[in-house]
Design goal:
This protein is α/β, with parallel strands linked by helices and 471 residues long. It is built from 13 helices and 17 strands. Helix 4 links the parallel strand 5 and strand 6. It starts with 7 loop residues before the first strand and ends in a 10-residue tail after the last helix.
Length: 471
C-alpha cells in the first residue's frame, strides 16, 4: 500500500495582533468566531512570545525567526535578508515534495521568498501600507523580482513610509480580503496529489487601522474598557520613545483617544477573522480540511496606551506575547497550554508533526511534547531583547527587565502571576533580591550562548556592574 500523504499546512499570520485579542481565550469584548473555532478544535499556547526585536520594525526579525527557527541575534543583520545556510520553513517543505504557496506580507527580502515558495500571489514585500491600495507583486516563477526598487527598512524611524516594491495595485480591496482571495483561489485551482503549505500573512491589524465600516461600528469607542496599566506617558526613557509608533498618539496619552485606537484595533481583528473564515470554508469545500494542519499566530503585540506606550518596541507582555494555535490531524482538541514558548518553535514543531527532520540550522524546540502532555515546558527561562537598550529574563513566574539608555540603568521585576499587567515593580524589595540575582545570571546567557553583540554592545552592556542602577 502507498504511504499516507503527509498533512497539508495552512498558516495564518497576523501583523501586530496581541495575545489577549481572542474571545475564546478570555477577551469578551472582541468578536473572533473563526479564531475561537480554532481554539476549540486545537491546542492554544497561551504564553507564546516573540524573542524581541533588533530594530524598530519588530515584525521583520520576528518573521525571520519564524521562517528560520533561529534566535534573534543569530539572524543576518535585522532579518532583512536570510542567508542560504539558514534553511527556510517553506524551503524545507518544498524539498520534501510540498507545493508551497505564499501570499501577503513578506518582510524579509525577495530572494528568500523565492527560495521558500513555488507558488504565490499578491506578495507584499514591504512593512506597512494603506490597506485599500496594496502595492503587491505577482508571483514570478523565475524568482528574480529584480525589476523593482529595493525595499527601504528605516520607515519606523520617521513618519514617511518609504518601502515600495510592486508591479500592480488592486485599488478598493482591503488587504485582508485581497490576500484571503488569493489563498482561496490557490485552494480551488490546485491539482495533483502533492501536499501543500499555504502561508497567508496579513497586514492587519497593523496601522493605518482601516476596515469596512460595519466592523468599526461593532466597537463604539465609548464602550471600550481601558486597560488598568494605562499611563499618560512611560515613566522613563526606554530607548524607543521617539520611534514612529510612539508618535501615533499625543502625549500625555488621552483616555478617549486610546479608546478610539483600541476600538479600531478590535474592528480590524474582527474583519481579519471573518476573512480567515472564508479561507477555512474553501478548505472544507475543496475537501482538504481533514488532512490539513492549521497554524494561527501573530508576529508581535502592541501597547496601545499600556505603560504609556503605543507600539511594540518594549519587553512588556503587551508587546512580546502573541496568539499561537495549532489545529488539525494529530493535534489535541480543546487544549490550552501555558508553557512559555517562542514563535521560532513553530518550525521544529511542524517538522515533528509532519515527520520531517529539522535542519541543523534550526534553534527552536518542538512543542509536540507539550501538546501531548508528555512534558510541561520546553524551556526553564525565556530571554528577550529589544535593540541595544532592553533585555529581559523570565522564569515560570517572574520577569526581570533591564533597561540602559545614555548610561542610566533601570531594573524592574514583575510577578506575572499576581501582577499580569506589570504595574508593581518588586526589584527594590529585599525579599526578591535572590530572584533578581538569578534572573540576572540568566541574562548573561545572551552574549555567551545567543550571540548578543548587537552594535558591539552585548557582553559589556550586560556585565554585572552595568545592571541595577536606578537613575
Amino acid at each position: 500500500m502507498p504511504a499516507p500523504a503527509r498533512p497539508n499546512v495552512l498558516f495564518f499570520f497576523t501583523d501586530d495582533q496581541r495575545f489577549d485579542t481572542i474571545h475564546a481565550l478570555g477577551n469578551e469584548r472582541i468578536v473572533t468566531p473563526t479564531m475561537d473555532a480554532l481554539v476549540r478544535c486545537g491546542t492554544a499556547f497561551t504564553r507564546a512570545t516573540i524573542m524581541g526585536g533588533s530594530c524598530p520594525a519588530v515584525c521583520m526579525p520576528s518573521r525571520a525567526m519564524l521562517m528560520t527557527g533561529r534566535t534573534l541575534f543569530h539572524l543576518d543583520a535585522q532579518g532583512q535578508s536570510i542567508p542560504d545556510e539558514h534553511v527556510l520553513l517553506g524551503e524545507l517543505l518544498r524539498g520534501a515534495g510540498y507545493t508551497t504557496f505564499g501570499t501577503g506580507k513578506w518582510h524579509n527580502g525577495s530572494d528568500s521568498y523565492a527560495r521558500g515558495f513555488s507558488d504565490g500571489a499578491e506578495i507584499f514585500f514591504g512593512g506597512m501600507n494603506d490597506h485599500w491600495n496594496v502595492p503587491a507583486c505577482r508571483f514570478d516563477p523565475t524568482g528574480r523580482y529584480d525589476c523593482h526598487q529595493p525595499v527601504v527598512y528605516d520607515f519606523y524611524r520617521s513618519n514617511e513610509v518609504t518601502d515600495r516594491q510592486c508591479d500592480h495595485v488592486t485599488p478598493g480591496k482591503h488587504s485582508s480580503e485581497l490576500f484571503c482571495d488569493a489563498a482561496i483561489e490557490f485552494l480551488e485551482r490546485r491539482t495533483g496529489d502533492a501536499p501543500f503549505f499555504a502561508y497567508l500573512s496579513f497586514m492587519a491589524p497593523h496601522d493605518p487601522r482601516t476596515m469596512p465600516r460595519e466592523y468599526l461600528e461593532m466597537f463604539p469607542p465609548a464602550s471600550v474598557e481601558l486597560p488598568p496599566n494605562l499611563l499618560p506617558r512611560h515613566p522613563f526613557d526606554n530607548g524607543a520613545l521617539t520611534v514612529r509608533d510612539e508618535l501615533l498618539a499625543a502625549l500625555p496619552r488621552d483616555p478617549e483617544e486610546m479608546r478610539r485606537h483600541i476600538a479600531e484595533y478590535y474592528a480590524m481583528i474582527t474583519h481579519a477573522d471573518a476573512q480567515m473564515g472564508r479561507v477555512l470554508e474553501a478548505l472544507h469545500r475543496t475537501g482538504h480540511a481533514d488532512n490539513t494542519i492549521i497554524v494561527f499566530a501573530g508576529d508581535n503585540g502592541l501597547a496601545l496606551g499600556q505603560h504609556g506606550l503605543m507600539g511594540k518596541q518594549s519587553l512588556y507582555e503587551h508587546s512580546i506575547r502573541v496568539p499561537l494555535v495549532f489545529a488539525g490531524p494529530g493535534i489535541p482538541a480543546g487544549v490550552q497550554r501555558d508553557a512559555p514558548c517562542f514563535l521560532l518553535d513553530i518550525y521544529p514543531t511542524l517538522c515533528e508533526l509532519l515527520g520531517l527532520p529539522a535542519p541543523p540550522s534550526v534553534e527552536g524546540r518542538s512543542l509536540v511534547p507539550v501538546m501531548t502532555g508528555a512534558e510541561r515546558r520546553v524551556r526553564e527561562t525565556m530571554l528577550y531583547a529589544y535593540e541595544g537598550a532592553q533585555r529581559a529574563a523570565q522564569d515560570e513566574r517572574f520577569k526581570l527587565i533591564e533597561t540602559r539608555v545614555n548610561g542610566l540603568s533601570v531594573t524592574r521585576l514583575f510577578d506575572l502571576d499576581e501582577d499580569p499587567w506589570e504595574m508593581r515593580d518588586l526589584s527594590n524589595d529585599p525579599g526578591y533580591a535572590t530572584r533578581v540575582r538569578r534572573l540576572r545570571e540568566a541574562l548573561r546567557r545572551w552574549p555567551e550562548e545567543l550571540g548578543d553583540d548587537q552594535e558591539g554592545l552585548g557582553a559589556a552592556f550586560w556585565a554585572a556592574e552595568a545592571c541595577g542602577r536606578i537613575p
